[in-house]
Fold:
Amino acid sequence: MRRLVSETRVHPAQLVLPVFVHEEIDAPREIPSMPGVQQHTLESLRGVIEDAVQAGIGGVMLFAIPASRDAVGSEACEPNGILNRAIDTARNAAVQRLVVMADLCLDEFTDHGHCGILDPHGEVDNDATLEVYGRMAVAQAEAGADVLGLSGMMDGQVAAVRAALDGAGFQRTSVLAYAAKYASAAYGPFRDAVESGLQGDRRTYQLDPANGREGAFEAALDEAEGADMLMVKPALPYLDVLADVASASAVPVAAYHVSGEYSQIEAAAQRGWIDRRAAHVEAVTSIVRAGGDIVLTYAALDLAEWIRAD
Structure:
């Protein structure tokens, strides 16, 4: 009876698995602050893609850890850079059986850990960063990405990337705008995963957690600039923002159940304080209930199995 009258149903095809690919390891390596999550090689990435296909999830989101970093994130735009090689590897392994998404941001490639180019005063230069994002977008599209995840929160990034893609003949490459990305305390384990050397914080370009209407406003701007999908990040502390964005948006809306949210469940479950399966299922169900059409979660493979079992 409960199943019959359930108002919210989660399907594996709604789930996206974030995957980390490291240029300098020769075997998968555990991430201590993210139990059950690994940094992968290009070779092991193929196996992850096949697992994701067999699980029936909708896609993967690729992140990379390069061997070298500099102030302008040069490796991000290199055709032979680790992220673009990972995109190519994933595309060939997937054979169009799932959606290959790629993170489009400079934080993984800069030695200072910020999402953009810094000016002489050490502040992020929004417009200089947009130029790099455009080149990065074309490189990722050439590598075979189906969707580009614009996570840098630069003003005008959607319009800049869309123009660069269209100008290079990639009109069919989709843009997922991280439209309402908050300056959250929940990103710590992710920064461990990408070995970030962040100096300072990102409060000058990520949103204030106190501001809900601003998140909806930013999402509307990105949709107007041509975003094919919108993202709210993190998920659980911002379900109100997610609901507002979903109610107003004409395009699909995603939410990212981020590393800190994931690791809190895993840590508590390891100590026997909560039921791991029930907690992850409840979290993703609440995200979909609030309006999330797509959910990025590190538990995507397990969730797909549990959903089928239920």
